[in-house]
Amino acid sequence: MSMTHHFDYTLQNAQGGTCIAQAWAKVEPPLPASEKYRIQQSIKQALAAKNAVLIAHYYVDGDIQDLAIETGGCVADSLEMARFGRDHRADNLIVAGVRFMGETAKILSPEKRIFMPDLEATCSLDLGCPAEAFSAFCDSHPDRTVVVYANTSAAVKARADWMVTSACALAIVSHLKDQGKKILWAPDRHLGRYIQDQTGADMIMWNGDCIVHNEFKGEELSMLKRLHPGAQVLVHPESPESVVAHADLVGSTSALLNAVIHGDATQYIVATDKGLFHRMQQLAPSKQIIEAPTAGESATCKSCAHCPWMAMNSLNGLLHCLENQTGEILVPASIREQAYRCIDRMLSFSRQTGAGTAHGLVPNLGAA
Ligand code: 13P
Ligand code: SF4
Prior knowledge:
CATH class of the largest domain: Alpha Beta
CATH topology of the largest domain: Rossmann fold
CATH architecture of the largest domain: 3-Layer(aba) Sandwich
Number of domains: 3
Structural class: alpha/beta
Largest sheet: 5 strands, parallel
Strand order of the largest sheet: 1-9-8-6-7
Low-confidence stretches: 297-303, 359-368
Bound molecules: 1,3-dihydroxyacetonephosphate, iron/sulfur cluster
Shape: globular
Strand content: 5-15%
Order of helices and strands: EHHEHEHEHEHHEHEHEHEHEHEHEHEHHH
Number of strands: 13
Radius of gyration: 20 Å
């Protein structure tokens, strides 16, 4: 059973989240080298002067990822970003990613100020799961434990019993199933179905998807595999079932990265946002990364898999928010306190069990 909610991605949401076309229109064109260097230096100075740390997601521009590492911040998946921000001593967290990541940081660290280069950077999963409709869905299933993906608004999290990220979702749902719980899952239908297949849990689903991962194509992937018979196929579980079926490994962003770093193969076909390839190539320079296909009938079609909202994060945007204190994330106290419970539950679980650590690889039991 699933709950269908249609969202028109040509519209903005109530919080000012930007539609796909608007997002691409705001993406900064490549900067001349001298200009880029000047901005990077200014960002470094501003981070130090403002007691701020840069926390970047693997999908943002490679220059921003490099800057985060050079300045003692981090490049991570959404679970690790949350942990890093909570534990860091800086007064100000600069989150380069999408809005739910900034909100999670604020919920975990209300005493810190959280800034983002562009508050309109959102996520199709968040846009497609408005709090009011979601709350009504929960109300109609009071017997179910509500488990939401990190890619949701603070208001949706406030209605949830558990938050999960792709790094720990499988372990948490298995744990709930062992306790005899029935689950209401939102919003990613592909991740939900994958977890249901792996755990056998009783789950009803919200019908959302990620506009990036939803575009990978199973048929074209099987053709590409034939061209590269020695390649390992790595798939993020937000991808459709027909794509997951061809995977050697299904895993979270960090699990895919670890599979490339530690794997024996020399070639990897990867179905996830190509922003991750920057870090993959840095950490595993001898490995060949091949983009999984998103379209076309030919096995050699070229993926364009990149999140428009992640792409909105720019060097100029970073400098602007640091210098002018713009793009501050604020979450009303009542929502923050409610939402904190489900995030803290996830973090405690992953601390106690190790779920979502670097070794949290997810074997694809259903691999073709
Ligand atoms: P991670 O939780 O793996 O960082 O993924 C977040 C995301 O937006 C995936 O598309
Ligand atoms: Fe959301 Fe998909 Fe972008 Fe991740 S890649 S932020 S799930 S739209």
